Amino acid sequence: MPERGDPMATDDQEATGTEREKTFDHLSIEKKWQDWWLAHGTFRADDASPKPKFYVLDMFPYPSGAGLHVGHPEGYTATDIVSRYKWMCGFEVLHPMGWDAFGLPAEQYALQTGIHPEITTRRNIDNFRRQIRALGLGYDWDREVATCDPDYYRWTQWIFVKLFERGLAYQADMTVNWCPGLGTVLADEEVTAEGTSERGGFPVERRPMRQWMLRITAYAERLLADLDGLDWPESIKDMQRNWIGRSEGAEVDFEVEGLPGERLRIFTTRPDTLFGVTYMVLSPEHPLVDRITTPERAADVRSYVDAARRKTDVERSDATKEKTGVATGGFAVNPVNGQKVPIWVADYVLISYGTGAIMAVPAHDTRDFEFATRHGIPIVEVVSPDGRPRGPLPEAWVGEGIAINSGSYDGMRTADFKAAITRDLAARGIGEAKVNWRLRDWVFSRQRYWGEPFPLVHKADGTVVAIPEDELPLTLPRVESYKPAGTGESPLANIPEWVEYRDRATNDMIGRRETHTMPQWAGSCWYYLRYVDPRNDRAPVDGVKERRWMPVDLYVGGAEHAVLHLLYARFWHKFLYDIGVVSTTEPFRKLVNQGLILGEDGVKMSKSRGNVVNPDDVVARFGADSMRTYEMFMGPLEVVKPWSTQGIVGVRRFLERVWRLFQGEVTDEPAPIALRRALHKTIRKVTQDIERMRFNTGIAQMMTLVNEAYKEEKRHREVLTGLVLCLSPFAPHLGEELWERLGHEPPVCRAQWPSFDPALVAEDEVKVVFQVNGKLRGDVTVPVDTPDDELKALALAHENVVRHIEGKPVRKVIVLRNRLVNVVV
RNA sequence: GCGAGAGUGGCGGAAUGGGUAGACGCGUCAGAUUUAGAUUCUGACGGCUCUAAUAGGCCACUGUGGGUUCGACUCCCACCUCUCGCACCA
To answer: Which end of chain A is more exposed for a tag (fewer CB within 10 A), N or C?
Structure first.
């Protein structure tokens, strides 16, 4: 790629003389205005400003070693356009940027090179900041935060302590993927389908290990209910609803034969199918498995349970595989009809949902049907769409209908039956209505180095206490080696002087510090609050400032965070609301997801495919303004779309045309009416399109205006002024430069947004089209609001219309004022 | 399997409280300018047809097949394809 200037011309097209510049030198213009904005603090948000606030937020990036890719500037440009527009409309805009700086890649790199993650992270942040500035993005850099900064994570730890104090953080033994070969715990994505580690190919086993958990389930109801009031894409809200997974049903107790007093409790959403139960299933981890199993079945059951334990989550949750299971030899008694049904153990039942045991109704559940068919278990039909039995079923009927084979309940509709039997079971003390959630508590610890340390101490007596608030932040110690300890603990466990927690006065040993660290999600759960008050050393955020800026008015980022980050952040926000730190129940009022930018070949950009476009190269060759405007012109923001180098050439060409329009003499004469109309339509369109975030059509309208302007001999000041104001949020460097050259005081991004004259936008003449039987047969240009009967007369007199209706009787004439006349024959 | 969304020229995409389909840009071709190339400017780019030419006319067309309507890219039904998310949650 060429290193400088003019991306179109090949050589010798030197710009000479300020009046005759045929092209603009983006490198010098960009540097000039980026320095200017920085020197003037243009994008600093004033907490005390009397103007109404507008808070625009980007999902902050993980500063990877690879630097920015072209996907980042897409969302950032969109928010930058909105920010500049809102400033121009008179808002005080908060538009900050920061770094999601803890995380695995830096630690992995440290493992390979021995360079401390802090050093590489700082280096990467500097590079990201440079790249973001080079795009002319207007951020308030005074509010920059990094989650790995002790002044920041002090408050992440503080929030954790509050969660801990209120019983929302607890320890539990969770089954995890443990890889002895690597000496570490692995995430599900790091384990292959064969049950080996992706790196190294070592065997991975399932092992229960102590983990810190956050009780997000305590907020399930509110997290679900409050989605309704959010201006978010419906698809994202649906994904969160599915993830939370509220499910209404009943828990029912079954007696176990031979174990008097013991009850097997199950959860079902279909208590109306109780008469169709033909077997029961326990999950392999269910505590009753051993006691229910008969001696002659013990060997089979034990080997099945052992095999299930060895499987990874990925293997066990593969719904397409055949359903396995073994009979325990034990029986349960159906409480509605006293029937004995066999109890099986099968790994298609999960210990982590409901009670870890189910009643199986093969006639009306696809999974039970599949299992029963495979193991020769009877199938009893108890629901029918029309109340008549249908004989042997080819597959499970999971719909609702009318009860059959259900004793005195026969003939009831599903919904009524559910209510009735739940009530009857409750009256007998063997059941109750129950709501279950798919959402699980959040595994909040990682056995890693590069994350926030837990501010907790395990005392000798087994209790766990938080360290005093004045000892925060609890900083990460420097380590020699980043290798995991090999015991499933983090590298921190290898540093005795850090782990041993002693009384500050007496030096007596009090206990041992927690050596796990927090997951990467922790820091991103509340960063949007810290921007509001980034240097506060007494609280995570000051209450007055919080009420000044929150909630976030517009949040833009990738859809890959649809569930995890956005759900975790909502959870923490609600908790902070409960303890009085924030004043709103939801953090993000409006959410927009930008679509992925694919490579020029139409597939996802990746190093291995060699289709990655580097923003540095694009900015150097075409300029930041071209890059920004092109990314917005590619198509709707939310849509996935391929990069096109030809496309950016076209946008650069447009900006050159704008540039040349400003060369030479500018007249103060009023523009011809047609051009003035075009200008006002453009102002209207661009204003609406920024509000709707449909930037592509706004840019198209500006292109149309420029094409119109070129048809005139003269350059009219009013047109140039309006154009540069509209264009400036998209191409801010060019905007500032042209604004200054028009003789205005910079910066253009604080000028007033132009308004349009409704009288000029309204047409005084319209083209009305004539149809015969819906087919276009002619048109006429008439003054607006020409009366219907006049239009009808014109249509019926039109030569071509007459030709098409001749000989046929006119049945009906439909007249739509200012639009069309349709003659039906 | 379940849930959500999308199918429009050679390409990216416009237009949906039903009313001129293809704005704007890319690309291709031709012409003007230029020593030449690049840049810039003008025009053409579904098929057929009329005319000396201009203007004009006819037909087809928004994934497929039906339906509603004077009129459907837009609404309804069925199907096909693609993308994304979840994936044994009882």
So the answer is: N
Contact indicator for A588, A555 with CB cutoff of 8 Å:
yes
Does the CB of A640 fall within 7 Å of any strand B atom? yes
Predicted confidence (pLDDT) per residue in A509-554, tens digit: 999 999 999 988 999 999 999 999 999 999 999 999 999 999 999 9
Three-class secondary structure assignment of A107-158:
HHHHHHHCCCHHHHHHHHHHHHHHHHHHCCCCCCHHHCCECCCHHHHHHHHH
**Closest-CA residue to A223 (of A585, A584, A522):** A585
| Helices and strands (DSSP H and E) totals, chain A | 27, 29
- Strand intervals (E) in A470-526: 500-502, 509-513
Segments of chain A scoring below 70 in pLDDT: 1-21, 187-190, 192-194, 198-199, 312-314, 319, 485
The predicted structure's pLDDT at residue A4: 33
Bases of chain B with protein Cβ within 7 A: 3-5, 11-15, 19-21, 23-27, 37-42, 56-59, 70-72, 83-90
- Distance CA(A823)–CA(A820), nearest Å, equals 10
Specify the 3-state DSSP secondary structure of A400. coil
Give A91's contacts (C-beta < 8 A, 6+ positions apart): A51, A52, A53, A54
Tell me the pLDDT tens digit for each residue of A179-202: 777 777 776 666 766 677 766 777
Q: HSE-up of A809 (CA within 13 Å, CB side)?
A: 1
pTM, rounded to two decimals: 0.92
